[in-house]
Design brief:
Largest sheet: 5 strands, mixed
Number of helices: 12
Number of strands: 11
Strand content: 5-15%
Shape: globular
Distance between the termini: 83 Å
Number of domains: 2
CATH topology of the largest domain: Rossmann fold
Oligomer: single chain
Structural class: alpha/beta
CATH architecture of the largest domain: 3-Layer(aba) Sandwich
Order of helices and strands: HEEEHEHEHEHHEEHEHEHHEHH
Helix content: 40-55%
Length: 314
């Protein structure tokens, strides 16, 4: 073979090498999937996020949002989450960018991950969103407050991650499971349903407002929230008002368990006479099921229903 042939082959190899290097560089830099149509979805703040194509690299700052990403089948695209993201088990292996509060989040780590967009928990991550906006990193706030907005958020994240069908299926499955519980309780009249005080925190004493998903969980599970008349999301209340409303049950998430036992509550002034305390009806529910606005809220509804109506939900 002559020298001209080798020079020609060398040029081919050089061009191929340059093309490969360019492709690898683009891959390493992240970026939305090429050759696909733009995708758009509105977040919990009604802001429209449009990506040039479905995202390949996603960072989640919320345990609930992390569960959603996996639920829609996009777990492989999650390149960063937080130390509180513990479900599913695969979430534990994802690189961490901090804790849950805005002050613990490392913007530098997020930038290094080259995300196509970042999922925040809304207003509590306002400072993080501002910092990301300065760096032109797209943000999607996931902070739903009821079943409908949880379902909408699941569907929206499915669209942004290129998993529209999976997102719609996950949202539908969640709503269907909740409806099954509600249907099983349809024959139980309102005045026969037990009254419940849902304790969020003890000092100061707080409950879930009527515009929160824990309230929606309680009502869907057949309980009567004694503070359903209060406006706002997480209102502070007085112990005297709890005594006056005399709940049949006291419930809360099990991460509040050391303060929410029959013995502990009975030590509160006057609380020993509350029906829930007298009858030992203080019930703790797994925190991830009732404190995270994700697909597993349906499991939370069933767990609460089983506690209130053991004869129906055996």
């Amino acid at each position: 073979m002559n020298n001209a042939f080798f020079r020609s082959m060398a040029r081919v190899v050089l061009v191929a090498s340059l093309l490969l290097a360019t492709a690898l560089s683009a891959f390493a830099a992240g970026g939305v999937a090429s050759g696909q149509a733009p995708v758009s979805a509105r977040d919990s703040g009604d802001r429209l996020l449009t990506l040039s194509a479905p995202a390949l690299r996603v960072v989640s700052l919320s345990p609930a949002a992390t569960e959603v990403v996996f639920a829609v089948g996009a777990g492989e695209n999650l390149v960063g989450d937080t130390s509180y993201c513990d479900y599913p088990v695969a979430a534990l292996k994802v690189a961490k960018v901090g804790g849950f509060s805005a002050s613990t989040i490392s913007i530098e780590r997020i930038v290094a991950m080259k995300p196509d967009f970042v999922i925040t928990a809304g207003t509590m991550h306002a400072s993080v969103e501002t910092a990301l906006a300065r760096l032109s990193i797209p943000v999607f706030a996931y902070d739903p407050q009821d079943f409908a907005s949880i379902a909408a958020g699941i569907a929206s994240l499915g669209v942004l991650c290129g998993k529209q069908a999976e997102g719609e299926a996950a949202a539908k499955a969640m709503l269907s499971s909740i409806e099954k519980v509600k249907s099983a309780l349809a024959a139980t009249p309102g005045d026969k349903r037990p009254s419940v005080f849902w304790e969020v925190y003890d000092e100061p004493l707080m409950t879930c407002g009527a515009k929160t998903f824990p309230h929606a969980i309680l009502e869907a599970a057949g309980g009567r929230d004694i503070f359903s008349d209060l406006p706002g999301a997480w209102p502070r209340i007085s112990g005297e008002e709890v005594l006056r409303r005399a709940p049949d049950y006291i419930m809360g998430a099990d991460d509040h368990g050391d303060k929410l036992t029959v013995a502990a509550v009975a030590q509160r002034p006057g609380w020993a006479g509350v029906p829930a305390v007298k009858n030992g009806r203080i019930i703790l529910i797994s925190a991830p099921l009732v404190s995270r606005a994700g697909p597993r809220v349906a499991d939370g509804v069933l767990a609460v229903a089983k506690s209130l109506y053991p004869a129906i939900f055996k």
